[in-house]
Design a protein that fits this description.
Blueprint lengths: L1 E11 L9 E6 L2 E8 L5 H10 L11 H22 L7 E2 L1 E6 L3 E7 L3 E6 L2 E4 L6 H7 L5 H5 L20 E6 L5 E5 L1 H4 L4 H10 L3 H14 L6 E10 L16 E2 L10 E2 L29 H31 L3 E5 L4 E11 L5 E12 L5 H7 L7 H12 L5
Antiparallel strand pairs: 1-11, 2-3, 3-4, 3-5, 5-6, 6-9, 7-8, 7-10, 10-11, 12-13, 14-15, 15-16
Helix pairs in contact: 1-2, 6-7
């Protein structure tokens, strides 16, 4: 069974845009990138609606492609309805690329020109097709990939959520492996960097946080013409509870590794004939008047010490589990190594051994250096916040609406 072992989520306004119209969701096992269009008062609304449609997860994880498609169609209806109800948001839309990590596969839903990739054994595999004018021309053989890069209409997309009442959602399932790294990104990354550059940066930065920051920095260095959003996740193999194997004991009895949840075949070592013991003289039966036999004090003391140790371990395990669960519902706002305003998940503390009790949850495109001293003091004070409160503050900050 596969699960997400490491992840990174970051977005950046870029160097030529005033607002960030990208939105993302990184809530394992579900990851979503959306790139809005229609202006700051419309594109960011469309992308946010798309992402929020996935916020509560899949209705039927047993059929992930159908579930992803249903959520995408629901988002399309909401965006389309709102665009017709509000003149300022007329014609708005958004791309969407979503991945759901299952036990053996990743399911993908896709509309537009955001992308999904898989890095496997040093090779970068593209998992989605762009719904754009130039990509359609390339698929028809009317343009070469090299010509598409410089085509003046390369930003024109042919399919998105919102503009039409109905939309076709591309879905597929991709057989996953332990060690796979998946990249979801908006076109602000892929229009600035070629796939060879993406692969090189991912391979050069084994830690996903380093890789994500390097990708965003490289896209900005190449011009940063659009908003840049990057989601990265690495998979690992975990064993299900029913796959437990018993090691061969000294007695030679062991369990066959095939376990179907109800039956296990047991195999025993051949019987060994025990040596014949010398005759034992029978002891006199104990009388009621006899004093009680001496108790093995050392053994009892050892058992007590073992019991206390086991109880202490159990208590510490319970406390540790409770602390971990509590940390998963606590968020705070600070800055990352690049000075960007970042939402962290966990407690804002570091243990003496250098272990952080928090992890990066969302990297905004706003540099702390652009904030006034008062705003920095109020926003970056590491106060414990709910997920909703932290997300609302960051969104208002990115849109320039934070008072």
């Amino acid at each position: 069974m596969l699960r997400v072992a490491e992840q990174y989520a970051g977005t950046d306004t870029g160097r030529q845009r005033r607002a960030n119209e990208d939105s993302l969701l990184a809530r394992s096992p579900l990851f979503v990138v959306a790139d809005g269009m229609g202006g700051a008062q419309a594109g960011e609304v469309a992308s946010r609606i798309a992402v929020e449609s996935f916020k509560h997860g899949l209705d039927d994880p047993a059929e992930p492609e159908l579930a992803l498609s249903a959520l995408a169609l629901e988002a399309n209806s909401q965006i389309h309805e709102l665009s017709h109800a509000n003149a300022e948001q007329a014609g708005m839309g958004t791309t969407l690329t979503a991945i759901y990590v299952g036990e053996q596969d990743v399911a993908i839903a896709h509309v537009g020109d955001s992308r999904a990739y898989c890095l496997r054994e040093g090779e970068l595999l593209r998992l989605t097709d762009d719904h754009s004018l130039v990509d359609e021309l390339v698929r028809q053989g009317r343009l070469t990939p090299e010509e598409a890069v410089e085509h003046p209409q390369r930003s024109v997309i042919t399919r998105a959520l919102g503009p039409e009442l109905g939309v076709e959602i591309d879905t597929r399932s991709f057989p996953a492996r332990a060690g796979d790294v998946y990249l979801l990104c908006s076109d602000g990354l892929t229009t600035m960097l070629g796939e060879a550059e993406l692969a090189a940066l991912l391979l050069a930065n084994p830690r996903l946080s380093d890789a994500g920051e390097a990708l965003i920095a490289a896209a900005n260095e190449a011009g940063g013409r659009d908003n840049i959003t990057v989601l990265l996740l690495r998979l690992e193999e975990v064993h299900a509870a029913g796959e437990l194997q018993l090691k061969e004991a000294d007695t030679g009895v062991h369990a066959v590794e095939d376990w179907d949840g109800q039956h296990a075949t047991m195999t025993a070592a051949p019987a060994v004939t025990a040596p014949v013991s010398p005759p034992v003289t029978p002891r006199r039966p104990r009388r009621a008047s006899d004093p009680p036999p001496a108790q093995p004090r050392r053994r009892r003391a050892g058992l007590r010490r073992t019991g206390v140790a086991v109880a202490l371990v159990l208590v510490l395990a319970v406390i540790g589990s409770a602390a971990y669960l509590a940390s998963q519902s606590v968020y705070f706002i600070g800055t990352n190594s690049r000075g960007l305003v970042t939402v962290f998940r966990g407690f804002p503390y570091r243990l003496p051994a250098g272990v952080n009790l928090y992890s990066s949850d969302y990297v905004s495109g706003v540099s702390a250096s652009t904030l006034s001293p008062e705003r920095r003091k109020n926003l970056l004070d590491h106060s414990w916040r709910s997920e909703g409160n932290a997300a609302a503050l960051i969104r208002s900050l990115e849109l320039g609406q934070l008072e």
